[in-house]
Design brief:
The chain has 199 residues and is α+β, with helices and mostly antiparallel strands. The protein is built from five helices and ten strands; from the N terminus they run ββααββββαβαββαβ. Strands 1, 2, 3, 4, 5, 6, 7, 8, 9 and 10 form a ten-stranded mixed β-sheet that branches. 25% of the residues are buried.
Length: 199
């Protein structure tokens, strides 16, 4: 399954991505300043990660919906990050038991940002989710995550909740934000693009 845009494509995780993720976790780590910088990646075990992912790939069955897809640049084939999904409850807290469909994105290298890759990746992923039966789409971030805040507004997300003093980042308390997709704005933006969609 691939979802193809003008600049990027979305595809499922594959074995060659394992080394990329290990590199991103241990070497090319700037992205972690934006994606949950309060989390400690120091306990990441590359050998355990490789074993776990190889087992998942061996046991893989094509799901009806992919909650995570990798982002490749069409022109170069470079693997630059991923889009993912998780669920939050009605109080906007992470939950494992289903709930409100919520998306995230990581574009790893600063050089690959501000080129339209993230915008296109989210447009494609949100469209895929809506076409797969998702009724509402949420996203979350924190006050200092400027790269993704601009992306959220561009896609058509609207702020619905502020969690005051949500986390401490670099010694300062920051607010957490939850957004919901304005589907009318999103569809208007989507109508300006033409993409193929293949499974």
């Amino acid at each position: 399954m691939e979802i193809i845009g003008n600049k990027i494509k979305l595809r499922p995780f594959q074995e060659s991505d394992i080394d990329d993720v290990i590199h991103w976790m241990l070497v090319e780590t700037e992205w972690q300043n934006w994606d949950a910088p309060w989390e400690d990646s120091g306990d990441f075990n590359p050998d355990a990660y490789r074993k776990r992912m190889l087992k998942q790939l061996r046991n893989h069955r094509n799901p009806s919906f992919y909650g995570r897809l990798e982002i490749d640049v069409l022109e170069t084939g470079e693997h630059i990050g991923s889009v993912n999904s998780y669920y939050i409850d009605d109080n906007f807290n992470y939950t494992r038991g289903g709930g409100n469909f919520t998306i995230g994105i990581d574009i790893i290298k600063p050089a690959n940002r501000r080129k339209g890759y993230g915008t296109e990746a989210w447009l494609l992923f949100v469209r895929y989710a809506l076409e797969s039966g998702v009724e509402e789409v949420y996203t979350q971030t924190w006050a200092g995550n400027y790269p993704v805040l601009a992306l959220m507004e561009q896609i058509g997300f609207e702020l619905i909740n502020v969690n005051k003093k949500y986390r401490v980042v670099k010694g300062e308390e920051v607010d957490g934000y939850t957004f919901i997709l304005n589907k009318d704005k999103f569809r208007k933006l989507l109508a300006e693009h033409e993409w193929s969609f293949s499974k």
